[in-house]
Amino acid sequence: MPVAIPDPTPAPNAPTGVTTPQPPAPPIEAPVAPPAPPPAPPAPPAPPKIELPSSDAAYLNNPRPTYPAISKRLGEQGKVVLRVLIGTDGLPQKVEINKSSGFDRLDRQAQDAVMRWRFVPGKRNGVPETMWNLVPVNFVLE
């Protein structure tokens, strides 16, 4: 009896032993997070709280300057503005004329009187500090 011999030729669309390599898949990149925003700059420090010196005569009992007798006779009057350096102890360290009354006698009398005054010292953030302050002194004939 005859035996069928298989044909060794592969079928037309049958896979052969050789495979074509697939191109490698592109690498999967982990998503990159956007860069973190820079930290906010620190808030600027609050401006220091400054309290100017005070010469409130009602509180400190500072004596009024004596009106020079000759200035009274001559009818001299005016306003002297003194620039006073007030120490942490409330005592004047230096007194300068910022604006003259126009009369040397009145200016000198005002300087002499203010050098004997006591002041509430100026403060920065609650701490006494040496500070300059303008102090007006009026000479008015009544």
From TrEMBL:
Domain TonB C-terminal: 52-142
UniProt keyword annotation of Transport present: yes
An annotated GO cellular component: plasma membrane protein complex
Subcellular location: Cell inner membrane
Membrane topology type: Single-pass membrane protein
Pfam family, one: TonB_C
Keyword annotations of the record: Cell inner membrane, Cell membrane, Membrane, Protein transport, Transmembrane, Transmembrane helix, Transport
Predominant location category: membrane
GO terms assigned for molecular function: energy transducer activity
Biased composition (Pro residues): 1-13, 21-50
Region Disordered, annotated ranges: 1-71
Record keyword Cytoplasm present: no
Gene Ontology biological process: protein transport; transmembrane transport
Superkingdom of the organism of origin: Bacteria
Family named by the database record: Belongs to the TonB family.
Protein name per its UniProtKB record: TonB family C-terminal domain-containing protein
Organism: Paracidovorax valerianellae
